[in-house]
Design goal:
heterotrimer, A mainly alpha (95), B alpha+beta (505), C alpha/beta (492), A: 95 residues, C: 492 residues, Amidase signature (AS) enzymes, eight-stranded mixed beta sheet, three-stranded mixed beta sheet, 11 strands, 37% helix
Chain lengths: 95, 505, 492
């Protein structure tokens, strides 16, 4: 499996990272280098192996249905680059 | 994608197309294939993965924890009650409960999705296959398969109309627990789709797992629509997003099916896409922006261990389940001898059925059903009241029926009494007494009234001897002269005797 | 260097309790070292006033004979731990100006026990790196230099600020995190002790996430005892992190004195990799002899899937990071670069906010999770991970701990590997298996290279058996008698 520049552009778009045209070639080369190297996993027969889901076997704890939150409007918006009247403000979303 | 379509096809229930469901096109009849994805907000105090309140209508960003705002280093902790609600719903849908399920991340960027991913369940949902029985208007039932039910987080809300160039984001809803309930493509008409949402909402309300309020967005439906010529393989489907009323579901389906048929009949092809229903125009339109680069990159959420619980817990939840609509309906029919139709009307809301049962207990069930579904529901509808807001209690309506049964008032007078009860909330006995509405059963009084009518209409008496059906006219006259208070049975008896007719037909 | 900063954490703790010194004196001495140590670039945010206040409060408690296990002990905090109202950068431009309104559980535990915060320590951006060169705030310089050279060396990574600060005595101990070796490798490069506990031993709540299934907090300290003391405070169950484990925290310090007579030590043969420098191999052999001499039995074990650990890691970690870092979008905190619409704002913000290595890993992770590749990469890697964990389980049915080198080389020069991601990734070859299996591991300084640079040995233990790990580490430490110190060139 080899990554071409078009694929790099596509995944950069998925990851929402702007990439200049002149960066594509180097990025494709680097990603291919890493992908070629991880390709060796193909040697391992893992057909009937369960994928690892957690590093430590234990049951997931659950919380009770209790409201513990208070009004944190100020705390959750105070670091925002755009905030107004308790809202986060972002450039228009085009639908 | 070809394998997906055939999987989809294999999961469908085999149904013979009904002529009345088909849509006529220029080139022949088309069958509409419908599947629904319903997002139901779980009734809970706190969110799915945080301790923030779920209350509707709070000030913007006032119910947002650091977890809900996806601050760095924040971690989800699952709400046990939300899990319980999902299990309860699964049981209510007679579905398979999976003792082990997995939370996945669905990755995409949107300002009201603070983590950049939605925690959902992809490959291993908490609830597997089940079914819902639809009660159609013509006493027909349709069984619709449920593919799965899974738990997921809701997103926040973006407001686009506050500013010309900016969108405002409120995360109060971010992280609220949802159940996504996915049907099989088993529906064939807009009516069936509407009945499906209706029935599902009824079941959720019986279970208390979702309030079903579509206006507040607690229940939202995405509709998958495709069309095909009868007997042809499945067509390409379009998904219509977030249709937020049952009426709109019908409109959206009808419009979308016609749009697809038109394209196909002109030799075009349908693009698999997401479309948005516009209630203003009654049309659907393409949502290209959402479509672009759809690749959610699902993978198991490493912050959450698999969701595992015991069968014992499931059994415990099952033992506390209320009577479900279908069971209630079957019981109402067998226990009270109700018609299919009356029973269906009554079970639509648990509170309505409860009301009926309170009225019917120890009384004539048919009479009770008529009064509840006819007079009471009629009045509630007219006045825009819910059953919870009824001014006439079940006890009062029961007393009214007793007054009819013991002959104190006639059925006709009872309607007036009922109207008065509805307006004033007073007890029927009081109204009857104060307004002197008791039925006249005094033979002498009635006989006098009859004699007067007979005396004034000798020609009618003669005619009646030839045509006994005319006796009804006399009854009407007597009732008129007694302001409806004469006991009709007594009137009939005396009249028959006086006119020389047999009274027992 | 003042005499006060020569004390180990344990010695300082005892002296504070006995009121021989005050926390204000001790903290003052460290603040002075920090001011003199700017050339190392170990701190990104010193918190001088906060340190002085906390020291004063500790002194008041100590004066009354009160105080917690770390009362008055000045520590450095890796800048991946969110600290309330104190700028937290994760070494990234994208968190520009971010002041968390909350405190991470691990640091809250430290303050609960009386520790004093000196400041926030530099690290590789989002902990992605093995040399501390990817930090937006510039590289950290290793206090150690090669004999007769003034070439600037890397302190290891990603916890390079932590390792350099502990080695240069700019703090008494430091918090760190380890996703693929980020505690142990920098410890090995700087002659310090680095302990990565079992996954789930320390809460991850409030630690900027890199790869959730691998990240684990732990201490970098001057010696094994100090590491044991620090872990005792950092560890513990946290209801806010459901992957943290609900089991009591043992008295780790008490484990040290128990000796290792009869302990069974495994030597994984697959770690004898091709091209391993002779001095690393020799060090390993010496370690084996030390443990034998202390009464342990040593046997060779096999971890057959070892060679697949790095490729597995470089699928799993980028995949998780591509999703974990999606929240840095210019909406709720940190950097925003404006754009015509929201998508352009995202793309510009993330392009400018993330450095080259982070971008590379996010793209890599996005790719391996994308439609059509999930099974071939991510699913396969998680299956191989199961096999790697099984290898360890098998080995631990025969032995109590494993002994390996920590890193395949001593510290290298700044810039030497920064253009070659693959050769940089190979630094983690001995450490990354431990993260994949969720096990505890510790690096102990065991000797110097021919060039006079510190080298470390790694011990790997069973899950939640940090006590045995610390016992064995203590035995190595005793036998190695590592007392070398870097020359304080940075003070000039």
């Amino acid at each position: 499996m080899s990554v071409d520049q078009k694929t790099v552009r596509h995944i950069a778009r998925l990851a929402r990272i702007a990439v200049r045209d002149d960066e594509l070639e180097a990025l494709a080369r680097e990603l291919n280098g890493i992908l070629d190297w991880v390709e060796q996993l193909g040697e391992v027969d893992a057909t009937d192996v369960e994928p690892m889901t957690s590093a430590v076997a234990m049951a997931m704890k659950m919380r009770e249905d209790v409201v513990t939150g208070t009004n944190l409007q100020r705390e959750v918006t105070r670091n925002a680059p755009g905030a107004e009247d308790g809202f986060y403000v972002v450039p228009k979303v085009v639908e | 994608m070809t394998t997906m379509v055939s999987d989809f096809e294999a999961s469908m229930r085999k149904r013979e197309p009904r002529a009345e469901d088909l849509i006529q096109g220029q080139t022949g009849d088309w069958e509409v294939i419908l599947g629904l994805e319903v997002h139901a907000q779980i009734t809970s105090k706190a969110k799915l993965f945080s301790g923030s309140s779920t209350k509707f209508g709070a000030e913007q960003n006032s119910q947002v924890s650091f977890v809900d705002a996806a601050m760095p280093g924040m971690l989800p902790v699952i709400n046990r009650f939300c899990v319980e609600q999902a299990i309860r719903t699964g049981l209510g849908l007679k579905a398979k409960i999976n003792l082990r399920s997995v939370f996945d991340r669905k990755n995409y960027f949107y300002p009201d999705l603070p983590q950049g991913y939605q925690i959902s369940q992809y490959k291993h949902p908490i609830v597997g296959e089940g079914e819902i029985v639809l009660d159609m208007k013509d006493d027909r039932t349709v069984i619709v398969g449920v593919e799965r039910l899974h738990l997921e987080q809701d997103a926040g809300k973006s407001l686009h109309d506050q500013h010309p160039a900016m969108s405002f984001v409120d995360l109060n809803r971010s992280g609220v627990a949802l159940m996504e309930i996915v049907s099989k493509p088993d529906m064939r008409s807009a009516d069936e789709a509407k009945a499906y949402v209706n029935k599902l909402r009824t079941i959720l309300r019986y279970l208390g797992t979702c309030d079903g309020n579509m206006e507040e967005g607690s229940l939202r439906a995405d509709v998958n629509v495709s069309v095909r010529k009868v007997g042809a393989p499945l067509g390409t489907r379009c998904e219509i997003k977030n249709v937020n009323s049952i009426r709109f579901i019908g409109l959206a389906i009808e419009h979308e099916a016609r749009r697809q048929i038109e394209i196909l009949e002109e030799g075009g092809k349908i693009d698999q896409e997401t479309r948005l229903f516009d209630p203003k125009t009654g049309e659907t339109r393409s949502m290209r922006s959402k479509e672009e680069a759809h690749d959610y990159r699902y993978f198991p959420d490493p912050d959450l261990l698999p969701l595992e619980f015991t069968q014992a817990w499931v059994d415990e939840i099952a033992s506390s389940l209320p009577e479900l609509p279908d069971d209630k309906k079957a019981r109402l029919i067998s226990e009270y001898g109700l018609t299919h139709y009356d029973a269906t009307v009554l079970i639509g809301e648990g509170a309505r059925a409860d009301y009926f049962e309170a009225v019917a207990k120890g009384r004539d069930a048919k009479l009770a059903a008529n009064w509840v579904t006819g007079e009471l529901f009629g009045a509630l509808n007219r006045e825009g009241h819910s059953i919870e807001e009824t001014p006439v209690t079940s006890k009062q309506l029961g007393e009214l029926i007793d007054l009819i049964s013991d002959g104190t008032i006639s059925g006709r007078i009872a309607k007036d009494v009922f109207d008065s009860m509805y307006k004033t909330g007073r007890d029927p006995a009081k109204i009857v007494e104060e307004e002197g509405l008791q039925q006249v059963t005094d033979f002498g009084e009635i006989e006098a009234a009859i004699d007067a009518v007979i005396a004034a209409n000798p020609d009618k008496v003669e005619q009646t001897k030839v045509k006994p059906q005319l006796a009804g006219w006399f009854v009407g006259q007597v009732m008129k002269s007694t302001s409806g208070k004469a006991n009709p049975r007594v009137v009939n008896e005396i009249l028959a005797r006086k006119l020389g007719l047999s009274s027992d037909d | 260097m003042s005499d006060l900063t020569k004390l180990t954490l344990a010695a300082a703790r005892d002296a504070l309790k006995k009121k021989e010194i005050t926390s204000s004196e001790l903290t003052g001495a460290y603040l002075k070292e920090m001011a003199d140590g700017g050339a190392l670039n170990a701190y990104v945010t010193p918190t001088v006033e906060k340190a002085e206040e906390m020291a004063k409060a500790s002194d008041a408690k100590l004066q009354k004979g009160e105080g917690g296990a770390l009362e008055g002990i000045p520590l450095g905090i890796k800048d991946l731990f969110c600290t309330k109202d104190v700028r937290t950068t994760a070494g990234s431009h994208i968190l520009e100006g971010f002041e968390p309104p909350y405190e991470s559980t691990v640091t809250a535990n430290l303050w609960r026990d009386g520790a004093v915060m000196l400041g926030k320590l530099n690290n590789d951006e989002f902990a992605m790196g093995s040399s501390n060169e990817t930090s937006f705030y510039g590289p950290v310089v290793n206090p150690w230099r090669r004999k007769g050279s003034d070439a600037r060396l890397v302190p290891g990574g990603s916890s390079g600020g932590s390792s350099a600060a502990v080695a240069a005595r700019l703090c008494l101990g430091a918090t760190a995190t380890d996703t693929g070796g980020s505690i142990r490798q920098p410890a090995a490069f700087t002659g310090t002790v680095g302990l990565k506990p079992t996954y789930g031993r320390c809460s991850r709540w409030g630690i900027v996430a890199f790869a959730s299934s691998l990240d684990q907090a732990g201490p970098i300290a001057r010696d094994v005892r100090d590491a044991a003391i620090l872990l005792g405070s950092m560890a513990g169950h946290d209801e806010k992190d459901t992957t943290s484990v609900d089991r009591p925290v043992p008295d780790y310090e008490a484990a040290l004195g128990q000796g290792i007579k009869g302990l069974s030590v495994g030597i994984p043969k697959e770690y004898r990799v091709e091209g391993m420098p002779k001095e690393i191999d020799d060090l390993w052999t010496r370690g084996i002899e030390w443990l034998k001499a202390a009464g342990a039995t040593v046997k060779e074990v096999s971890l057959p899937h070892t060679k697949y650990a790095l490729p597995t890691y470089y699928i799993v970690a980028p995949a998780e990071c591509s999703s974990n870092l999606a929240r840095y979008d210019g909406v709720r905190y940190g950097l925003r670069v404006e754009g015509r619409d929201v998508t352009e704002m995202y793309e510009k913000t993330r392009a400018e906010g993330f450095g080259a290595e982070v971008r590379r890993r996010v793209l890599m992770g996005t790719y391996v999770l994308s439609a059509g590749y999930y099974d071939a990469y991510y699913l396969k890697a998680q299956k191989v991970r199961t096999l790697i964990a099984r290898d360890f389980a098998e080995a631990f049915s025969e032995v109590d701990v494993l002994l390996t080198p920590t890193a395949p080389s001593a510290a290298f020069a700044i810039g030497a590997k920064s253009d070659d991601p693959l050769s940089m990734y190979l630094n983690d070859v001995f450490t990354v298996t431990v993260n994949l299996a969720g096990l505890p591991g510790i690096s102990v300084p065991a000797g110097l290279s021919a060039e006079g640079l510190p080298l470390g040995l790694q011990l790997i233990g069973r899950t939640f058996d940090e006590e045995t790990l610390l016992r064995a580490a203590y035995a190595i430490e005793q036998a190695a008698g590592f007392t070398a110190e870097p020359e304080a060139w940075w003070r000039a």
